Amino acid sequence: MPNNPPSGLGHVPVAVYACAPTSDAVREAEERGRHYAGARLWRVAGAWSDFDPALPLAERPGWQAATSALSAGMIRGIVVSTPTQVATDTAQFASLGVLIRERGGFLADASGTSPTRRTPGQRGRRRDIADAASGWSSKDDTSEEGTS
């Protein structure tokens, strides 16, 4: 398993982790994490949450489940909606990222990202443009021959 998060798009299995005192806040954090993963074509293999941010990270059942999935090779990364879900400051978040990399995974922060707006059929149109640019297309060419 690579030690660095993938730089491009791909079907990377990840977990979404959220910790907040209310179910609405957990749901919102999980939705943001899922959106972040989906925009990168990462597959959300599981979502875990905890409702007591005051608990130390190591004592949170949801966090333990996410890191167990990482250790078992079920996922390659953990996505959190904000660093405060798992750390008290940026230094602690960076240290946690190092620990996760040492276990063969990555930690991704979904904060500060604006939602990607997609129109219906946008992915298909982009695929068609890429196919046309490469000289290959899965659709029948019905181009008109020029006549004078």
Strand content: 15-25%
Rg calc: 20 Å
As laid out across the biggest beta sheet, the strand order is 2-1-3-4
Q: Poorly predicted ranges (pLDDT <50, ≥5 residues)?
A: 1-8
Overall pLDDT score: 84
SSE order, one letter for each helix or strand: EHEHEHEH
Structural class: alpha/beta
* Major sheet size, sense and barrel closure: 4 strands, parallel
How many helices? The count is 4
**Overall helicity:** 25-40%
What's the end-to-end separation, in Å?
60 Å
Report the principal-axis shape. Answer: elongated
**SS elements, strand count:** 4
Structure in words:
There is one protein chain. The protein has 148 residues and is α/β, with parallel strands linked by helices. The protein has helices at residues 23-39, 61-71, 90-102, 122-134; strands at residues 13-19, 43-50, 77-80, 106-109. Strands 2-1-3-4 form a 4-stranded parallel sheet, with helices on both faces. Strand 3 (77-80), helix 3 (90-102) and strand 4 (106-109) form a beta-alpha-beta unit. The longest helix has 17 residues, at 23-39. It is elongated. Mean pLDDT is 84; it is low at 1-8.
Task: Briefly characterize the structure.
The protein is built from four helices and four strands, in the order βαβαβαβα. With 148 residues, the protein is α/β, with parallel strands linked by helices. The longest helix has 17 residues.
Notable traits:
148 residues; alpha/beta; four-stranded parallel β-sheet
What is the strand and helix layout of this fold?
Layout: E1 13-19, H1 23-39, E2 43-50, H2 61-71, E3 77-80, H3 90-102, E4 106-109, H4 122-134
Parallel strand pairs: 1-2, 1-3, 3-4
